[in-house]
Design goal:
The structure is a homodimer of 568-residue chains.
Chain A: H1 21-28, E1 32-36, E2 39-42, H2 44-63, E3 67-68, E4 74-76, H3 77-82, H4 85-88, E5 94-97, E6 103-106, H5 111-121, E7 130-139, E8 154-164, H6 167-187, E9 192-198, E10 207-213, E11 219-223, E12 230-232, E13 252-255, H7 262-269, E14 277-284, E15 287-294, H8 301-305, E16 313-315, H9 318-325, E17 342-346, H10 347-350, E18 355-358, E19 364-369, E20 380-382, E21 401-415, H11 417-422, E22 426-427, E23 433-434, E24 437-444, H12 445-455, E25 457-458, E26 461-462, E27 473-477, H13 484-499, E28 504-507, H14 513-522, E29 527-531, H15 533-538, E30 541-545, E31 552-554, H16 556-566
Parallel strand pairs in A: 3-7, 15-17, 17-20, 27-28, 27-29
Antiparallel strand pairs in A: 1-2, 4-6, 5-6, 7-8, 8-24, 9-10, 10-21, 11-12, 11-21, 13-19, 14-15, 14-16, 18-19, 21-24, 22-23, 25-26, 29-30, 30-31
Helix pairs in contact in A: 1-12, 2-6, 2-12
Chain lengths: 568, 568
């Protein structure tokens, strides 16, 4: 492609409403233009990248034996009523009335449509197992669309749905998709982790999220380098600590006139933060609750909400705190509340001895506190904290590390939920009607583009993994049209690289070199060759990889060898 | 692809609600499944064909220098207000409210969005000319969706929009697109015509429709074999006839007791139908109108509506006819109306002498009628009829032929309409702001699949042009799993054809041969090889082209030569 015949439109200013770097860079590189909130046009440059992702996803899905079809974007309400999701899906479901006043939605996902397809098409066990996939435009009416295509309303998704006669067969296909996803993200050149997302009702590891690692990621991922173990911090189990030690200190009331946080109290008293306990006051359907966590731990609300009577809770306000504990926040604790409360202790807290708590009196804490002796045993002992770096991994493989990630894929064992709700049945080998088991497997195709940028960028712009780059090589021509030899050399190299099947773009727009180089770096082309009159005179070409600090002067043969070696 | 690992689901019965053969065959072949009125899932088989069409369209658009992007399906109301089309587009526009009560539509076309994109992106003449295209899902809320994907509500379209500084530049790109479309439909292997659709305000040939020829087509196309001339019958000009002859017969009242139509009257009187004149009674904004046509001609309502005072008209009812002409329908004519009427004569009628008309008296006609002598000259003389086979072509190239066609593409010179309405401007070389000229170029990608079937089918099913076939060759295995040599030979041939880059499908489902052959013919695979124990014994393979009457026995080498020669 010659850039003079393409449409490249880079922007210098960082757009005001772009909060994250991928959104900023996609707008600055001119990959994306906003049409409305959460709705974007993919420019020719952006689309080149999107199609690369799409092609790799398609190839690997085909290789894994999944079969592509194409379902409509507009789906009738009746199907969603069958699964109860017309109501339950919530505000993200974009509902539509046609001219005949029939109700539809713009599909945010296709479980209903594929299950309807399956109940009409799949009649016999001989047709199973089967895995259908599509790469198709979806719409979710996000209440706060932002971050560009990271959380757009209209987006491109690969979704796949498999059907099986037995859970074992589903588990095999689940593993097959897990492996396919691993190949996809590996081929895309992304650093990623398959994160255990739930150890839910269906058993085993029924759900994994595939996350692209990036400091800006919304999800915190706990993983063990020693094993494949990885889980969202919200989901990762904090292993039970060892047994509780016997009390060694006497209970002591200490003045902490201005020290309200565990860190301040620990500093004042000269004790380890891990010897302090913070009390988080909550109000739930079962009344006033104190959740107790080690001073260096964070509450995990998802884990807490799984305890009886705590499905719904909120932070207590100051009046409620004073009413139940007799103290202002900052000095509260589980000992001698003014009114009956529920005590929920994290497992680490339940195993502590000689610890520090608030005294329920302004300006005071208690130290040398021990369960049983100074306090009643807690009402609930449970894992209610987030794991943190250095904790032991739940699989026993060693210390956890924490990274941030962006979810770009999800594999899920749905079981019989949709098939049962919609009455999909197949005859087994004995001629008996059976409800099939389903898996579903999604990849956010457009989201991957943004995630890749979050992971791969620098001050100059995007640094595409080569599998996603719009072109592998940019030829930058200094002063085209003014020196014939330069133009000829550029055209010859362009033709030669194309002849080798290498995707090359020729920047013949006639910009001055600074602006040209800035554009090529911004849009992230992995390799750059500069052709100038001065270079030609020496028989050398200036070559630079996007991730190299400096350029090198190479002769033609060296150049071709380098480019061939570095292109996919 | 092995069919045992694919999802093929053919149906024997012709579905009740499928009115046309392409819809019937697409459902029977299992290419399509209905989700809701005018909304279809493309099954794996259907999608293979759709993607072939899409790929050829994309390749030729790229080759023609157009640049692909991807615009959203959901478009904000504000843009459509700018062009006035939010109201004017009519009921086909599917209007949507999101959770914040903002209004959108599901894009039925993208002039507004691309013009908005252009006004933000295109600032200088240096960026022009440019032609953007996309292949994208659209929705038109048809009041009566039918004929499957021929007139679906959700459909796949290629739309392109070009921008130019001058009308001359637009005209060049128009021709470029015309040529690209010609290559596309030629490569698809379809018989088609580029039909002049309008000779409107912009001048020259501002609009062409590309129609696939098929007896079932909705459009009647007049064309001249001697030249490239082709036009929709509604648009084709009927050339002016020669000068009017002098009267030779006397006016005569003749009894036609039961003869009401021109054909009946002509038969009774023994005159040529072309000597009779039919009177069509209409009511328009300018009152009661008689449109006069030769007995063998058909009224062209589009042409008629272009006359002054006739933009809106309807057929007169019997009471109005009696009131103005004093006679019941069947015997009416332009002579001596009871009340003042407007006479509109087709040019052929105005050139007639000694003709036959109704006498405005039940049971009577007049013969030997002549303009001037027996009748006042008509108020309007114009081309108000459809051309018919044998008429002279408007380009003077000889006699017209009439064929039926299905519109699958449209190229159009929009001029400045959208750019002006939306304030898109670019600076010219002199730094002066100019409103660009636009062209738009559409192809109904999903519709092409149906149109190809309308053109290419027989009693057994679809006969795909090879460029559109889901696979080029089907290997039918008789009794797989029972004779190892048969399985091995099939697998070896399958691998060898794949090695040659030929798309081959192996029917290893184990059906009996009749059912297997019926399926392969129904889904339209161009070439078939049968591998059976008996054939193997003789070293011969049974080969049959889908369009051949019989199969032939070939040895392996002959077979490979034949298949290679017949595959794209």
């Amino acid at each position: 492609m010659r850039l003079s015949q393409f449409h490249l439109n880079t922007v210098k200013e960082v757009p005001a409403d772009a909060e994250i770097v991928s959104h900023q860079l996609m707008l600055r590189a001119g990959m994306l233009r906003k049409l409305a909130a959460g709705i974007y046009t993919w420019t020719p440059l952006g689309l080149r990248v999107l199609r690369k992702v799409e092609a790799i996803v398609r190839e690997e899905m085909n290789r894994a034996g999944a079969i592509e079809l194409l379902m409509p974007s507009i789906q009738p309400r009746e199907l969603w009523e069958e699964t109860g999701r017309w109501q339950k899906f919530g505000g993200q479901l974009l509902k539509i009335r046609d001219r005949k006043d029939q109700e539809y939605c713009y599909g945010p996902t296709h479980e209903e449509v594929i299950t309807d397809f399956a109940r009409n098409e799949l009649k016999s066990y001989r047709q199973l197992p089967i895995n259908f996939f599509q790469i198709q435009t979806k719409f979710r009416d996000e209440i706060r669309p932002r971050f560009g295509v990271m959380r757009a309303r209209e987006f491109l998704m690969k979704d796949a749905y498999s059907f099986h006669l037995t859970p074992e067969c589903l588990a095999r296909e689940y593993q097959n998709m897990y492996d396919a996803y691993t190949r996809i993200f590996t081929r895309l050149g992304l650093r990623f982790r398959a994160v255990q997302a739930d150890t839910g009702a269906i058993g085993g590891s029924a759900s994994h999220e595939f996350s692209v690692l990036a400091d800006s990621g919304e999800d915190a991922i706990a993983f063990s380098s020693a094993s494949g173990y990885a889980a969202n911090v919200e989901m990762a189990e904090a292993l039970a600590p060892g047994a509780r030690a016997a009390p060694a200190e006497a209970l002591q009331r200490v003045a902490t006139p201005t020290q309200k946080t565990c860190a301040e109290v620990a500093a004042l008293l000269g004790v380890d933060l891990a010897r302090t306990v913070k009390s988080i006051a909550l109000v739930s359907e079962s009344g006033f609750v104190l959740a107790l966590l080690r001073g260096d731990h964070l509450l995990n609300e998802i884990k807490l909400a799984k305890l009886p009577g705590l499905a719904e809770f909120r932070l207590a306000n100051e009046a409620e705190i004073v009413e139940h504990l007799g103290s202002e926040p900052g000095f509260i604790g589980p000992r001698e509340p003014r009114k009956a409360i529920t005590l929920v202790a994290d497992r680490s807290v339940a195993a502590m001895a000689d610890f520090v708590i608030g005294a329920n009196a302004v300006g005071y804490h208690l130290r040398g506190v021990n369960w049983g002796r100074d306090l009643p045993e807690p009402d609930h002992v449970a894992d209610i904290r987030n794991v943190q770096a250095g904790d032991a991994a739940a699989d026993g493989s060693g210390a956890l590390q924490i990274a941030r990630g962006i979810e770009v894929g999800h594999v899920f064992q749905l079981g019989q939920k949709y098939a049962a709700a919609m009455g999909a049945q197949v005859l087994d080998a004995q001629g008996k009607a059976q409800t099939p088991f389903m898996g579903c497997y999604g990849i956010g195709v457009s989201r991957i583009v943004a995630a890749a940028i979050e992971q791969n960028h620098d001050a100059a712009g995007i640094r595409w993994p080569r599998a996603m780059a719009p072109w592998q090589v940019a030829i930058c021509v200094i002063n085209p049209k003014s020196v014939a030899a330069v133009d000829q050399a550029a055209a010859a190299l362009y033709a030669e690289l194309q002849g080798c099947g290498i995707e090359v773009v020729l920047d013949d727009r006639g910009l001055r070199s600074g602006a040209m180089f800035a554009d090529i770096e911004l849009i992230g082309i992995p390799q750059r060759v500069v052709i100038s009159e001065r270079g030609l005179a020496t028989g050398q070409l200036e070559y630079r990889r996007r991730d190299a600090a400096d350029s090198e002067m190479l002769n033609k043969e060296q150049l071709m060898t380098r480019i061939r070696a570095d292109s996919p």
